[in-house]
Amino acid sequence: VICNCENTGYIGQNCHFAKYRKTCEELALLGYSRNDVYLIDIDGNGKFPPAHVKCEFREIEADSSITVVEHNLPSQVDVRSSSGQDFSFRIKYREFTAEMLQELISHSLYCRQYIKYDCNMAPLELHSATWFISSSNDAVDFLGNVSRGYCPCGVNATCVNPTQSCNCDANENKWHSDEGTLVDPRSLGIMEMFFLQQKDLTEEAQGRITLGPLECVETNTQRYVVTFTTSQSYIEVPGWRKGDIAFSFRTTGTSAILLFQPPIRPNYPSFMVALTSEHELTFNFTLNTGTTRKLVINSKRKLNGGEWHKIW
């Protein structure tokens, strides 16, 4: 059987391995450091196709890399005026569907999305006249990490009018703004926006909306490493029989055992992954039939230069 993997997003003899990494953090492990747009596959070998994101890489000692999903809503979009009609907008995030956004959000350490409403005599009136729909199909009628119907200033009574929930609800003839960062997973990935036009808006009335991209941060895997202090050290993987194994390593040694599963009982499979030269990895397998196999992988990149390499 010959599998044709062309244009599938998968590679390997059986088209089993995802061609693209799941997040920007995984790209960082492979040595990527240039902030740019990349193709990633958010669920690996799952059902979703690859999609473009912007990667913002960080130093190893700093925060994790950020996976940024941009959308098609410009900044400072006019949504309210005295002559305007009710306004609604459906937002598209590159190739991402709502379900794909939820997948990214669910396996991230945390995600966030900035939102801002600028106003001049155009009240915000969250819930009754302004609301949004998230990628999880939840109604969002708040700005930031606050209760429903509130802006951040309304939580601690610092709004222009302390009796109101938002600055813009003061309805003054001067420019004000309300802004916040959404962090609740149920509020993230804003897909739709709705703005009803209030009655009796004056000619000076203007309301504008700005929505930032969805930004997600993975666990910084480079902080959670196992360090070998001797050349005889290795990781033992007891009891593994099926599935996929992926790991990253970096070394300056010329040879090392990276992973080893001993046969825990007769006729039980075992394997070993070893660095056998600066450009060579060797995989030794013993099947449950007792048959031994060996696979040698040659890399164009130097494997013991102290940089991270990923095996999957």
UniProtKB/TrEMBL annotation:
| Domain of life of the source | Eukaryota
Q: Note the Pfam families from the entry.
A: Laminin_G_2
* UniProt-listed InterPro entries: ConA-like_dom_sf, Laminin_G
Name the SUPFAM superfamilies for this protein: Concanavalin A-like lectins/glucanases
What region holds the Laminin G domain? 224-312
What species was this sequence derived from? Answer: Pectinophora gossypiella (Cotton pink bollworm)
The protein depicted here goes by the name Laminin G domain-containing protein
List the signal peptide residues. Answer: none
